[in-house]
Amino acid sequence: MPVASEPPLAHSVSKQYFSWDLESARRGRVLLLILLTLAGAWLRLFHLGAQSLWLDEGATVTLARMTWPNFVHLWWCCEASFQGTFFLLIRAWLHLGQSEAWVRLPAAVFGIASIPLIYLVARKLVGVIPALASAAMLAFSPTHVYYSREARSYTMTIMLVLVSSWFFTRAVDQKRERDWALWTLFSALAVYSHYFAALVLVAQACSLFFHKKPTPWGRLIVHGLAILAIAAPGVTYVLRVPPQAMNFPWMPKPTPKQLLHLALFLGGSGEKLVLAAILWIAGAIAIHRERNGESTPGSYWRGMLVISWAAVPIILTGLASLLHPIFVQRYMIFCLPATVMLAGRGMAVLPKRRLGLWLVIALCVASVPTIFIRDRKPHEDWRSATNVILTSAQAGDAVVIYPFYAIPGFDYYRQLDPHAPVLHLFTQPYYGVGDNDKTLLQALSSDSREFRHVWVMVRREGPARDNLQNDSPAVAAKLQSVFGAPAIWQFKDITVLEFGR
């Protein structure tokens, strides 16, 4: 009798041990994910307000501070619609604080939230262990950390496309209408947070060509049209404005050099790109091998969703750039989660001597110095440049800013200082602030002593300039004739000229 009872007892003990082992592994993964999220949070929050706001961040604040009529006008006619969801958030956020760290905090929070979120998405698409690797690589990604510390919508959009992809995968797998509705909602929010998020939705649709089960094209079309209808008010700017009006000299074409820069942007500089490339190639090969022999049902389609997400937005942006250059690296940052997941998939198929694991660890460790080097690299120093004017100017002095779109940097720090003197601002009133510089010429021509000082701020990239000949020869000649040679201060990407008596 005792002998007969031993097999059931052994089976029960084995089952309990197996259950305990699975629970222990699950707890270990949760603990590791928490540690990665905390490490990522520290990298994104450390010295968050140390650097001056730069031009685009100043524009975020200026747009958020606008009256509703001005904001709606710029949303309908100009660039406010590109990142409208984020600007609306900042409008409310600024009621609670105005400092540089506070302005940047939402982007940091979205960046931090994306670390556990990419784990959840990657677990569906590439597996549990690759999901942990994906969370680690995103937590230590220099690109993701950099944009988590900038008051723009990029990390918000990354988070939204991750949520969109989560519900897209559930909708295709489980065919529930609730998941399709939530995919529609978060996809529309992603497009409103940045136009280029729409390319990720195109990539999701393209992945269905690799779906072996009956493909839900009908639901995709219906809900895709719903997304288009919801997002239509936000994309009318793109449809109404001539393409050439949306191109700027700094927007490049997709040359081999630019493609290399994009790879460095997504994978990391120097040796980090080599490590990332090995993982990308291994991941792509592993996904291709599942074409005829899936390890789990649907794994090939999920892998192709990752590849489509990583490649389709870049391909479409490159094709569009052949006509009108828009091949801007940060516009393709929404491919970053996919490249990270592809690398995570590659890690899992390099088991010999744990090569994949060591590559991921090396990539994360090598990224830390890059993050701190970038953190110390100075931005446009609007803080110091504005402080020179505010501490020396007298009430009634004139300030002229070139080019006109650089006004947000000065305006932010002027409003941040409660003791700032009342100054007369001359620049093209694009953001609803200031008078045209022609008004300054008229004022100086009618009464050359109207202003005791005229302060000129010139934002420039490249070699420093100490004159206005390239910005407004007429203003330069008039100021020279009335005040003589100016005093000059040079800051990072900004020159301050003081014309005074």
Describe this structure in words.
The protein is mainly alpha-helical and 501 residues long. It folds into two domains: 27-376, no CATH class; 382-500. It contains 20 helices and five strands. The chain has helices spanning 2-45, 55-65, 68-77, 84-93, 100-125, 128-139, 142-148, 154-174, 177-193, 198-207, 217-240, 256-267, 271-289, 299-321, 336-348, 355-376, 382-392, 407-416, 437-446, 473-483, and strands at 398-402, 424-426, 453-459, 487-491, 494-500. It has a five-stranded mixed sheet with strand order 2-1-3-5-4, with helices on both faces. Mean pLDDT is 88; it is low at 1-6.
Structural features:
mainly alpha, 64% helix, 5 strands, 501 residues
What is the helix/strand order? HHHHHHHHHHHHHHHHHEHEHEHEE
Helix fraction by DSSP (H/I, runs of at least 4): 55-70%
Number of strands: 5
**How is the main sheet built?**
5 strands, mixed
Number of domains: 2
* Tally of alpha and pi helices: 20
Amount of beta strand? 5-15%
Structural class: mainly alpha
Largest sheet, spatial ordering of strands: 2-1-3-5-4
Shape category: elongated
Briefly, what is this?
By secondary structure, this protein is mainly α. 64% of the residues lie in helices and 5% in strands. It folds into 2 domains: 27-376, no CATH class; 382-500.
Task: Please give the structural blueprint.
Blueprint lengths: L1 H44 L9 H11 L2 H10 L6 H10 L6 H26 L2 H12 L2 H7 L5 H21 L2 H17 L4 H10 L9 H24 L15 H12 L3 H19 L9 H23 L14 H13 L6 H22 L5 H11 L5 E5 L4 H10 L7 E3 L10 H10 L6 E7 L13 H11 L3 E5 L2 E7 L1
Parallel strand pairs: 1-2, 1-3
Antiparallel strand pairs: 3-5, 4-5
Helix pairs in contact: 1-5, 1-6, 2-4, 2-18, 5-6, 5-7, 5-8, 6-15, 6-16, 7-16, 8-9, 9-11, 10-14, 12-13, 13-15, 13-16, 14-15, 15-16, 17-18, 19-20
